[in-house]
Structures are given as C-alpha cells and as structure tokens.
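User:
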Amino acid sequence: MRWLALLLLTACHAPAASLRAVGALGNSGGAGPGLVRVGDAKCETGAVVDRDGCVWVSGGDRINRLGLSGALVESFGLEPAGARASCRKLALLGDALYFIGQSGGRNWLYRLERRSGAVARPFGPPLPRQPDDWWPPCLGAEPCDGRLLLAWETAPGQMGVYAADAASGALTALFSLPGRLPSGLVFDAARRLVYLGAQFPDAWAVDCRRLDGTRAAGDWPVPTTKTPAQPTAFEGRLSLAGGALWDAGHYGFLARCDLAAQVDPGRVVEWHHELTFPTQVGMVGGGPTQGLVIGTNMADAVYYAWWDTAERSLRLVRRLGALPHIASLNLSADGWVAVGTFRSTLWWRWDDDCDVPPRKAELHIATTGGYFAGEQMLACGAVYRLDDGQNKAPYPITFSRRPGDRNEARRGEPLALSRSITGFAVSASAGQPTGTAWAVDGPGRRLLRAKVSLANLAIDAATWQPAALDGVTLTTPTDLAALPDGKLLLADGGRVLCLAPQGDGLTLAWTLADGFGAAVRLASDGATLLVADTERHRVLAYDAETRAPLGQLGEPDKPGDDGGHLDRPMQVAVAGGRAVVADTGNQRVIRIRIDQ
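Assistant: Predicted structure:
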C-alpha cells in the first residue's frame, strides 16, 4: 500500500503516463524516508533485535535501526570522522548498543545510546592487536552480569576471554585457554557457561568453560559441523537463539546445534550465496515457528527467517537491506531480474516486492548486460567477488535462474583482449546455430567481436578481435545493445550511437543526443530504447525504430527518492512492457511499466 501514494507522484512526473514506476527491488525501505542506505558494502554486520521489535545493523559508516518490515526507522552516525562499523556481532545492554568499530587503524569497543539523534563513539582503550591482526576481536552478544564479554588471541596459540565494563570500557581478564582465531563467543546466562568457537589447535571446534575458566562437563572441545565441500568449513561463529547454538560457514552455510554443540539437525542452509557468510543469528519470537534475524558479512543484506521446529527447516522470509553496489542489471522476457552485486548475482521476479528475498543467488557476478536463452543468461563477469568494485579479469559467464547443487555459474575463458569490459551483447538470427558476441572495451575505446554458439552459449575465445568502425570515433563507451536487424546501439559519453553492419565492420547509422548529460547507459528489446541519463537523474524511453520519444521517469536535474524521482540512474534493462533501472543513489532497483 505504501506505493499507492508514490504512484500518484509518478503520474505527475511521467509525460503522457507512458513510463510508470510500480515498485522497487532490493531495498526493503522501498522509497522515501524508509529507504535503507549503506556506506560500505564490504563491511560485515551482526543483527540484534531490541525490545521494540526493531533490528539494529551496521551500515558501514553508520548504524541503522530497521523495522521488521525492512523500512529504516533511524540512522546513527559514527565518530570520529572516517570511523567504520564492520562488526560480526552487535550487543544490547541496558539503553545502549555495543559493537566493535574501526578508527585510526585500530579496533575499538563502540557505544551507541538508544535515543534519537545519538552518535556512536569509541569508549575505553583501543582493543589490543592480535598476532593475526587481520582477524578481528570477538564480541559476545549476551551480557554477563552487566558487562560485555570479548575474546581475542593474546599471544600465538593463546586466547583470552575478558569482561568489559559497560560504562567505562575497562577490561578485566576472566580466563585464558590455548587456541587461535577466536570466531564466536556466547554466554548462556541460565547455565553460566561461556562457549567459544576457534581453532583448537588447528581444527575448528567449540569449547565450553565456566566463568573461572574451568571446562564444563562433557567432551570439549567439540569439532564444528562438517560441510560437503572442503576447504569450506564451519568456523564456530556462534550465536545463541531459540535454545540452540548456530554456526556459520562460507557460501551461505548455516548450522543448528544443541547446547552440547552436537548437530540438531546440523546443516540447515547450504550454498545460499545471498547470505555469503552468516555472522549473527538472533531470535524475534518463540513458539513452534521461531522468527530469526540473520546478519551476514555484507552490511547491505540481513535476513528475517522462520525456523520451523517441527519440520526442522529454515526459510528466508524477508531481505532487510539495500543495494549499495549494482554491477549489472538484466531482465528476461518472462520476467526474471538478475542483479549483479559486490559478491553475487541475485535473481528476483519482476513483480516481487521491495523486501522479498532473492529467488536465487549465484556465486559469480555478472558485470554487464546479458543475452538470455531460455533459463540461461550469458554475460561478462567476475569470479567469486569484485575487488574494490572493479571487474579486473572479466570472464564470459553463463548464469541460470534455476537453483543447482552449488549455485555456481559456468565460466568460459577470460577475455585476454581487455581487462575492463563495460558492455556486452549478442547478435543472433533465427534458425542460425551461431551468433556474434560483442564487448565494449571502455578504457581502450573500442568494440570487440567473437563467434558464439547459441546452443550452449559458448564463446570461441580464439575469435575475439576488434571491430572496424566507419564514421565514428569512440570517446567513453559504456554500454551496448543488439537489435534484431543486426544493428548495435552503443552508449558513448552523452550520446547514443546506432551502428549498422557494413562489410566486415560497422558504420554509423544515426546519433541520438537528447540533451543528455555526460554519461548515459542504455538497453533495448528491439521495440523500445531505454536510456538512463545518469547526471540528469532521469530515464527516457524511445521507439527503437523511429526514435520518437515515449516518455520519461524522473524530474530532470532534481534527484529524489520517492516513486517519481531518481538519483543517478545507471544500468537499465527492458523486455516487453516491463523495465528496470538501477537507481544507484537510492541503492535500489526501480520496476517500470511502459505503456504504448
């Protein structure tokens, strides 16, 4: 219902009502004040629920408080300037939130008062450096006698557990034990026991101690749950929720164990790349179906899930977060939306709501537009993650919306001709077994071509070569679309170029520069040309054949975050009467209906 008012705004700004925003994907706040924003997509975050049923998460350069609907309730800044909240666990104690933040190259314990307008600040001394300084100190989510528990490696092969005063940050040593890389710390207040996940000495396991350091009854330490693929492993990233211990591993693995650290039933989530690496599990409510919030190693995505005690199964219900890094955007003719992010490619249905979890997440990342053939999509992309947001070694990758055993796309040979591909398209003729793959080398200011098998979407890497262009010199090419008649549409600076086949090369057929800013992106399904005018905060639609204007979404030169405004729109995709645009300044994807 919140989009009803926004659609009325949209009608005021879309000429002839031919382009209509009908909702958002990937930002659980949808639009306006409820939008979620994240300052650093590569930050980890825990997730903790307060007494009002709101979820506290890191936003990189801020702390966000969200409703269970996913809408932003309030955002809190950090001090000093440049501080960063990359934290695997959050803790609530009294009227304050606690977490480990980074400032001046050191880890600090931060405190944020739970009141409007508060600012998170470090308190107490900086946390000691560890022998493995890349490994962060470990914070427990559960208070112990009005204090906070922390653990870190004090010397090579030796760990310490400490209590921090909630007011001053003063540290008191509780006990030490052999081991390294402490990864999870839990305090069971009912039984006065401390659980610690770490390497003991070289294998991941869980130990259990009393507050005086003596080992609890039982055969401790207990090896962590096994995974079906090595070197993937559960690392003892412990949380206590619903009377159970939860552990996490790479690639979205989540396990549930009893209080003796025995599997119960063990692995409950596998190869869920939308989670990538769960960090903290917290309970929202009890009963036969327990509500859980799950933090991850991405500050942009936290999940609300249901654990069914009778069925022993976990289901992701809602995604709470934003899309701070959109590497690519694609839309199939039958309504599947593929969004490349910093760590995975997420698949939604076009008519999904803003807080719906992705229908699937693939391990590899599409960084260009793609070509659809049935359930598969061929695009250029990155393997495993985007370092610093750059596609440094692009591969042709075949993605699929159908979940598989590992949800891992099929990659081809890397593109040796270029290290930076900014656009990709495939020209195909009906009934022909092969087509032409086109790639834009932005920094090289050239267009590349190769043969592609349409049966298995495999590119013949040996055939890549520059395409000869007649009548045009490229300046800053950024995007590409193939038309059914063999022509290509190319975004170059603030203009759209139409290139027609001529012999073995291409010649300029026409140029469109409708008052665009310095950078545009484009997409076309053969009938409609969609142009994202990034600097002028608008998306324009044209008849792909006549170039007659069809409409506009967004108010020129006026960024905004409601249903009728955009903020730095970039990637676009169109199929039939449906389209999507990456509204990058608002960290969301906008769904667009095109009426002709």
